[in-house]
Amino acid sequence: MAIIEIKHPLLAHKVGILREQGISTKQFRELASEVGNLLTYEATRTLSTDQVEITAWDGSTLSVERIAGKKITVVPILRAGLGMMDGVLQLIPSARVSVVGLYRDETSLQPVYYFDKVVEDIAERTALIVDPMLATGGSFIATIDLLKQKGCKKIMGLCLIGAPEGANAIQAAHPDVDIYIAAMDSHLNELGYIVPGLGDAGDKLFGTR
Ligand SMILES: O=P(O)(O)OC[C@H]1O[C@H](OP(=O)(O)OP(=O)(O)O)[C@H](O)[C@@H]1O
Ligand SMILES: O=c1cc[nH]c(=O)[nH]1
Ligand SMILES: [Mg+2]
Questions:
Q1: Closest C-alpha residue for ligand 1 atom 3
Q2: What is the pLDDT of residues 175-186, one digit of tens each?
Q3: Which of 85, 99, 100, 103 to mutate to test the pocket of ligand 1 (most atoms within 8 A of CB)?
């Protein structure tokens, strides 16, 4: 299993508004973060828990569940991944953040690396990559390559909208990585944009166009 499309009325509603022409920067930011939050809830369903003993309210000993062993690092892909990050951190407030900077060359559609700052103990953590758009899949694949080179063993991803071309590319390159996605769209156009998609997520989040 690599690409998991989450069918949920709240996600469908919010993604529908994100696609509207003329959406304000404020509303786009709020919704991208909310979708990040809902996808986190689904993606973390697979985390295992340990039983630990606590002293309960009445002084008795009680066995309760805690998230097991490995900790999480959230990995936003700059820039647009930052737009989902707050929603993710609302549910995993103690997660460390590792940043990967990539942009997609407009002509070749290849990801161009410009920065990374990844937690030192990445080998001990589950990485949760966040980026709103999965088009050719090049940016996700480059980020997964980088994290694996640094020793990361368990990787998941969250994404607002994907194209089948990118989903197939990730499945071929990294079948061990599960990506949770709010909507799988039709195809890429001749410029590499997702159809119907929502346009350029980074520009909408940062108000740069
Ligand atoms: O699947 P791909 O074909 O690699 O395309 C998807 C990438 O393109 C966008 O980033 P962009 O290059 O626009 O950078 P930005 O976030 O700085 O706007 C998007 O946020 C993804 O990172
Ligand atoms: O449709 C697309 C494709 C890549 N990046 C975006 O922001 N949107
Ligand atoms: Mg962009």
A1: 136
A2: 999 999 999 999
A3: 103
Mean pLDDT of 101-117: 97
Q: How far apart are CA 101 and CA 186, in angstroms?
A: 27
Could you give all domains of the chain from N- to C-terminal order, each with its CATH number? Answer: 3-206 (3.40.50.2020)
Could you tell me which residues are beta bridge partners of residue 97?
74
- The tally of CA atoms less than 13 A away on the side-chain side of residue 17 is 16
pTM: 0.96
Q: Does any ligand 1 atom lie closer than 6 A to the CB of residue 34? A: no
What integer is the mean pLDDT of 79-100?
96
As for the ipTM of the complex, it is 0.98
Q: Which of 104, 200, 204 has most ligand 2 atoms within 8 Å of its beta carbon, as the pocket-test mutant? A: 200
Q: Which secondary structure element, helix H or strand E, spans residue 35, and what is its range?
A: helix 25-43
